[in-house]
Structures
1.
Amino acid sequence: MTLFNLVLYFALRDGIYLLYVAFVISTAFALGADQGMAQEFLWPEASGWTAIANFFGCSYSIGTFVYFSRRMLGTKKVLPRFDKLLRLLAWGLFLSPVGFVIAPFAVALPAVLIYLGTFLLVMAGTVYCLAVDRQRSAVFYAAAFAAFLVAALLTSSCALALSKAQWSPPMEYRLARRWKWY
């Protein structure tokens, strides 16, 4: 899908395809950092970077997700105030890795709360575009990203110890052990 959307970007010169490519690459990086694949292949000698890299990947993945959502749903035209909030939130996500480098464990809990809030805001915008504005693209968008949004909400709630799932992703488990949530 990444190469296909990259080809579509070069053929059509529509920026939404490039946003999707950036989203997929940053999500793959976040998943690779979370599961240890990135450490194994990209930085085998830097074990201290592994915990921070997961937050970098999540921040950039969610930031590109917000920008992709803005373009897909047309929030600049449909919901201008909401669009400004989403833009501000995305830039905060893009700049948040600075805090992860300076104080990773002090920034971790607020970051997870921001991730959770971001997904709830995007879902609210999608529901508005579906119900009130009746956008056809919002139907396809909601169908395509429903599984991603549910997984993100479950992961965030697990990290915040709002739910105790049978599985526990490595990053969230490390955070929970650090703050003695389990």
2.
Amino acid sequence: MQAPVSIPSNQPFLQHVARQILQAFSSQLPDLSDCHIFLPNAQAAFQLRQALGREAGMTLVGPYIGSMRQWVNENTPLVNNDRQQINQPTRQLLLLEALKKHSHLFNQLNIWLLCDSLLVLFDELTSHKLAIDKPDLDDWTRLLQQAYGNEDISLTQLSEEACLVHTLWHAWQKQMLEMNICDSNTAYHQRLQQLQTYIPVNTCFYIICAEQLNSAETEW
């Protein structure tokens, strides 16, 4: 793995990136099919593709330019997982059902808002590889503190929220296991764990704005 490359702020960013890539693949041009470039958004991907074409002065074969999540989902099968993947509306309905079973933990007037907020939090915790099987609530609260990435948040401040999330997440995960289903975020992170097995020889990755990757992506 090569060291990160910093681009001076006074230089055109995508133009500089395009030149770096073309230089690295100079002996293979116009074939960039072994090159995979991960970018945080579609607009940047479109602009980089244009910059590569301008700098190369020829029609290029490849490369892949897009999000890491999209590439992983398209190129890595789920192994030893026969659970059906559910969509976002189904996730909401399942969590809503779990919330109703634990209505004593929250104000039911805000149940839909709570449902959406919890799904966002669950995805963040999964992305930061937070263990959900910790039996001790204090340990789990500390892990939640780490997942927030803010050590200034006291355990006392998090204890009530940790209890709520701890209870609801376990109920939700149990329900999905019993129904033999999983959500797209869980499936994505399972693919990340299996990714190394499915990377073809000579494949080269460029990750732009790597600071936007979550913990599981960074570890890969």
3.
Amino acid sequence: MRFGGHETFAIREGWLHKGLKLLVESPELLLDENACDHLGVGRNMAKSIRHWLVAAGLARPCHDFKIGKKSSLTTTELGDLVWRHDRYFTEPGVWWALHVNLVNCAEHALTWTWFFNSFNFDRFDRAVCLEGLRRNLELSKQRMPNPRTLERDVACLLASYARVIPAPDDDPEEGNDCPLRELGLLSHFKTSGYYQTHQHRKEIPAELFGYALAAAFRDAAAGQGATDITLLDAARAPGGPGRAFVLTTESLYEVATQAESNLPGGDLEIVGLAGNRALRITQRPPLDWLKAYYLRLEKKDRRTKGTTQNLSSSIGCSHGNHDQCESVSDRSGSHVLSLGC
């Protein structure tokens, strides 16, 4: 159980890419006393990046190799997968996956685990949230950290997810907002100081719905067939899609229905089980669901490239100079189509 490893900083745009890049290419530099110089951030920010890599499941300590008293870090299978397919963290699915990991990582993100799994207020202020965390720690007889540490943890959690209303006039180029805000789980009303969770249906990629089920239910992650999970269990189980994605039973059903229609036949079905609705899900580990997500995106990219290349070959260049044509690139930066001919 750890508090405060984030050094009060929520994840910022580009941080995980910087940290993962350094971890893949020069892992020893991530623990170097001058890691901040290699990452291009402040010293405490460098510590925060290391923390978020571990808490989000992209890296893990490697106790066999230490630099001073610190264990070195190495990429996890998830970190390797993201580095191969989405190293700039541009796809929304990766942020849903990292969020699920945080909700299920009590060792490095206990406040996150408590908030999404146990805190049941849908409208609250920071003081109520802080008191709820403090009481939870007392009741569970866990070590009580310094009050200031708890305050900083709650402040970091809320800053990670809450969209401020009305939106501030900050420069969007500064990149200080946490990408987790784009998940649409929480709002902060600046005038009243209150926070509001959003329990409506969200645009969650179908594979990431499977990812959350596999992360929360052992039977869904192991085996070679299918397993049934009641809708009520999916909505209420710690770390499951209902808790992690802030969904009611009905909004969870809406998300599940959408996932059922978007996934290949049989991967997820809504069935009746002893008079109750249940989710019949193909058994596979969470990582395989994220692999399926990236595979679908890559197939979509190939289809798009094929369409645009066919269109490009059918369009003649009117001025005879292709250098003057505008370029449209896909997310990997490769040339797709020339316009203006």
4.
Amino acid sequence: MRTQVFALCAAAIVAACSAAPTPTVPALAVATPPMSTPPDTTLHLATLANGCFWCTEAVFQQLQGVHKVVSGYTGGHVANPTYRAVCDGTTGHAECLQISYDPNVISFAELLEVFFNTHDPTTLNRQGNDVGTQYRSGIYYHTPEQKATSEAYIAQLNASKVFPAPIVTEVTAFGTFYPAEDYHQNYFLDNPNQGYCAFVIRPKVEKFKKQFAGKLRPEGQAVKGGQ
């Protein structure tokens, strides 16, 4: 099964992960809406779609305050989709990450800063040369506060013209998340010397580490996810 899926989708994955670099995105400048409940020790969820999850997973796993990152699919109309079906663009799902994080260590706004710095949010249903609704840019909010923060951030970035075109990231209520197949989880961490990881993902991760040096976990302590 793995060989069949790779044969069908390898070219699309390379194109999505090899997209042109985005401009440097500043932190959210407007006030973040207050939480509706006092801070506690409960982990929060963020569901973000920003292209190839092999690449994006490897980035968010490095952040302090992130406890788990699971690659998967959301926003579609078919239950329990397979990677083959999502890759065909017939299920309506986006490739995404389900991120469990401690809001006392890293805020949702800070996750969005990483999100907007690691993909192109101005191309509709596209990342790099790869075209399809499964590669759309999306924020699937779990709370009204996440919705307000996302909309405020997008408004700020559009007003300051950080990107050469308007942001087309969809901001919509979270529905259902389906974890991707096991072999997609922790792909870079488990296969660091594989050719694709070494030549495509590693340079992206190294660039991210330089840009967000103050927000990283200690070297070698990236968090793992999975089903």
